[in-house]
Design brief:
Order of helices and strands: HHHEEHHEEEHHHEEEH
Number of strands: 8
Distance between the termini: 41 Å
Largest sheet: 6 strands, antiparallel
Number of helices: 9
Number of domains: 2
Strand content: 15-25%
Structural class: alpha+beta
Shape: globular
Low-confidence stretches: 78-82
Radius of gyration: 20 Å
CATH topology of the largest domain: Beta-Lactamase
């Protein structure tokens, strides 16, 4: 049944749909000013709609380029989007190999402004494994993945501190200790969280770079603390770095 010709058209909703269609058609990151101009939307209105869509995980905002793209959160709203699902599925094949080889749970995290979202997991085929639910969200600086993102956000120390102070950790962690671990992660190529995110759990994460050297995904291994020796942890870190390079052409 067609809506009545007298139906009320809600302009902000129309503008939001136009923005989503625009981003889907363009296929590349676009700044707010360009969208407002091309769609003939008031710049202030366009910015407010974009900010709302980012907050709802429907689109993504790159703080470095100040540009917007369609986000993974749209999958949850609109149902299966074949291309995105295929990419995640293909990445999981790489993850499954690492999970089985090292007896850990592999997780694929995607960052969207102030949060990171778990978009894929692969468990170890052995009897004991840590099960994680896809779709869960965490503060963007939390865990080993958070340390990876912190290293590549190009934020001022004061801005990092503001985000850090909002996080509730399982055991005490000072900001200086956190920064030291972020730097260690940069030096090694992988970051670690040893029981601060979750008691009794150790995580190791590596960045997944796109072709512009930006980081919007991380690959993380989750395990019971002390289940691996330091030598095994180092071997796992190198394996994750190799897997990250294999996943880059899959996701991007």
């Amino acid at each position: 049944m067609k809506p009545s010709s007298k139906a009320v058209i809600v302009k902000p909703v129309v503008n939001a749909v136009q923005i989503l269609r625009y981003l889907r058609r363009s296929g590349h990151p676009t700044k707010a000013a360009a969208m407002a101009r091309d769609l003939s939307i008031n710049p202030s209105t366009c910015f407010n709609i974009l900010r709302t869509l980012v907050d709802e995980d429907i689109i993504e905002f790159n703080e470095s380029t100040k540009a917007y793209t369609i986000g993974f959160g749209l999958n949850v709203l609109a149902g299966p989007m074949l291309n995105d699902r295929q990419r995640i599925h293909a990445a999981k094949k790489v993850m499954a190999k690492i999970a089985a080889e090292h007896n850990v749970t592999l997780s694929l995290w995607h960052r969207n402004l102030n949060r990171i979202v778990l978009v894929g997991t692969e468990n170890s085929p052995r009897d004991i494994s840590i099960v994680m639910s896809e779709g869960q969200r965490l503060p963007s600086l939390m865990g080993a993945s958070g340390r990876v993102f912190a290293a590549h956000l190009n934020l001022k120390k004061s801005e990092l501190r503001k985000k850090f102070d909002k996080i509730v950790w399982q055991k005490p962690l000072s900001f200086d200790e956190y920064l030291s671990e972020v730097q260690t992660g940069l030096d090694l190529g992988w970051a670690e969280d040893d029981g601060f995110f979750a008691a009794g759990i150790k995580t190791i994460a590596v960045p997944i770079f796109d072709y512009s050297e930006n980081v919007s995904f991380t690959l993380a291994a989750v395990m019971i603390r002390e289940s691996l020796t330091p030598q095994q942890v180092e071997h796992l870190g190198h394996s994750l770095k190799g897997a990250s390079k294999s996943i880059t052409p899959i996701l991007f």
